[in-house]
Amino acid sequence: MDESPVVVLGSQSILGSYDTAELPEAAFQSREVDILPLSGITNPPAVEEKLLMLDARLGENSPFHEHHGFYVEGIHKDVVVLPKHWDSRLVHFTVADGSSELYGRTGLCLDPVDLCVSKCIAGRPKDHEFVAALVQDDIVTVPETLEPIDKYGIEWPPTYDSGNDAGTPFPDPPPLHS
């Protein structure tokens, strides 16, 4: 697939803004990287074949997954709920190979606050734990997570189902300071 850049939409997008040494362990435990080819934003009908190709080449149980210990899942934009104008706050990154060489691929990651808004709306326990860990480590704050919702509103996808897990109560958060 000749597509660059891609947008990292899931929890691994935090790695576009922070190195793992700066993050709580709970923030980078997922072995799944949810991505969307950028063309999926500008031309959603054309993205289906690209998503299938991503899943076949880099998806769960692929040789890539077995070799690297993580896998890529191609997803549609409309399975993610984000604050409006999220795409104007994307974080750019270029992938290095561990030496001084770059692979030459550019990626776009969600801004950490937009990521946390999305995770809070998704409402799954793992999402709440992810956000709570970032809040506890002062990576994001609750007020800054609420700000884009108050300022811009939410971009509800046309496929949003009001019967999903959104609104699941947050677990009791860990104490923020000892």
Mind sketching the topology for me?
Layout lengths: L5 E3 L23 E6 L1 H4 L5 H11 L4 H6 L2 E4 L7 E2 L7 E6 L5 E8 L2 H11 L2 H12 L5 H11 L1 E2 L23
Parallel strand pairs: 1-6, 2-3
Antiparallel strand pairs: 1-2, 4-7, 5-6
What does this structure look like?
With 178 residues, this protein is α/β, with parallel strands linked by helices. It is 31% helix and 17% strand. The protein contains 6 helices and 7 strands. Strands 3-2-1-6-5 form a 5-stranded mixed beta sheet. A two-stranded antiparallel ribbon has the order 4-7. A hairpin with a 5-residue loop joins strand 5 and strand 6. The longest helix is centred in the last third of the chain and has 12 residues. The radius of gyration is 16 Å and the shape is globular. The C terminus is likely disordered.
Brief write-up:
With 178 residues, the chain is α/β, with parallel strands linked by helices. The protein has helices at residues 39-42, 48-58, 63-68, 112-122, 125-136, 142-152; strands at 6-8, 32-37, 71-74, 82-83, 91-96, 102-109, 154-155. Strands 3-2-1-6-5 form a five-stranded mixed β-sheet. A two-stranded antiparallel sheet has the order 4-7.
